[in-house]
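Researcher: I need the complex structure. Ligand is 1-deoxynojirimycin. Inputs:
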Amino acid sequence: MSTISVADRIIYQIYPKSFKDSDHDGIGDLKGITQKLAYLKELGINTIWLNPIYVSPQIDNGYDVADYYQIDEKLGTLADFDELVAKAHALGLEIILDFVLNHTSEKHPWFQAALHDKESEFRNCYLFHKGKDGGPPNNWGSFFGGSVWQQDPLDADNYYFHLFAKEMPDLNWAEPKVRVEMLKIAKFWLDHGVDGFRLDAFIHIAKADFEQDMLTSSDKPQIAEMFYANLPQVRTYLQEFISQLRQLKPDIFILGEAASADIDLAVDYTTPADKSCDTVVTFRYFAEDKSQVEPDLPQIGQPVKLDIPSFKYNMLEWQKRLEGVSYPTLYWSNHDMPRILSRFAPPKEHSACAKMLATLMYLQRGIPCIYYGEELGLMSQTLPTLKAFEDPQIIDFANKARAKGWSENEILESASQAHKMAARLPMPFDETAYQGFSTVEPWKYSKVLQKTNIAKQESDQKSPLNYYRQLLRLKHQELFIKGRFILENTSSKLYVYRRISKNKQALVICNLSADEQSYPCGDLTKVLLGQNAKVLGQKVQLASYGAIVLER
Ligand code: NOJ
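Model: Output:
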């Protein structure tokens, strides 16, 4: 039985290849994570989400799974995993695994069988379809660029569907064999002691009629979410899948990745009556301010700022509409986006911004989800080569930027501020070579080392790390878990909210700007936590990026 309720969860997301290398090959691994459990415990989290750890050709860093029952050899063994779970549990920490259910790797034995034999019993486990007018079945676009269709090597007028890379064929969830197998895999990992799953890209497991084109005047493939995201059938598959898991483990924790879900869908996916997801992650919080983007260059290589007024509106909507339904996830960064400080903080204000943003986000109603290294105020780093992005869309960006006169450095810097890959670099532990992540050059590396590390921050009482520790202690208080949430109507330079319970109240005031701000706090003058801010009578004075948490 889990001792952690949904509302009490504080998640720490680990990108295993970049957390800690224990066997000196430059790649983080499971034993490395086990070595650092005490650090995570002291931080104040209670749930660890691991990005995929299964056998994979690593076309998409583990999201292309070739064998769901084995650990990728670079990350360790099943015995290492069992040890990690046992030691985590002994510390009161729980482990949730990324569960990749929309697609497999092309190297998965099912797909290999389906690809090489038209009569294979596994052919219908994937989405093969006849072409149209000498081309693919329709004009739908893949999230990784180009068409969702790839030609079938056995038949030039036949194609298979891939929403992500062509090496990641989508599964056909209408085929019972697929649903049975996915359940079997999940049970296998439950037997190995996992406490829950993060369901990867689950909103895509149902697709519309392949004969329907997207309406467009362009001759290029078009992103067509209306045909492959959040279709009604998704809920049916999901409910069937999760309800069976809950029969085996009633308190299993399910975090659904619902990147494009709006609040209405979030309500649907987390409605308690369905016993489906406990919570979902949407990407919609982070409205983009594209005012500095060059319109004739691909956006993938250009950083975008946060559109603060829209961000506030979105947060408010998710906070209020999920009351009485479920708990929203609270996060700033993950492996699919640039680190938040790179999008937000001016060069000299990292530390203050890191603390202010954490205060703003995590004391709201919901489940904090902290991306490894965020507690140190890590930024995205500049990757040394275009190849390091592992993304053809970045090559396209670079070619177009070069034609406009950009230098190689400008291209690398811009792409590193904008691209997810620059947010997946090694965790810095200390001052030794490779910052204590490894003793050899890491698999992914920036020549510009992080300016900070855990050892440095441990000994600095004012560091982001020590601030996060205090903040997460506060978050475990009943008021910040169950209290009502009210967002004050302020200028976009401020983010101010109250958490209210029967006999307690807290006021959280955050300055999103570099300008001094002040805000009335009435008789809530006792400081629970803060930085760059002080109480003067019944007012709070906030210096640049200040934040403060008050009670009566
Ligand atoms: C969502 C994951 O977060 C992302 O990293 C991955 O590329 C896609 N799903 C495909 O699995």
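Model: Summary of the prediction. Residues 60, 63, 100, 164, 200-201, 257, 335-336 surround 1-deoxynojirimycin (CB under 6 Å).
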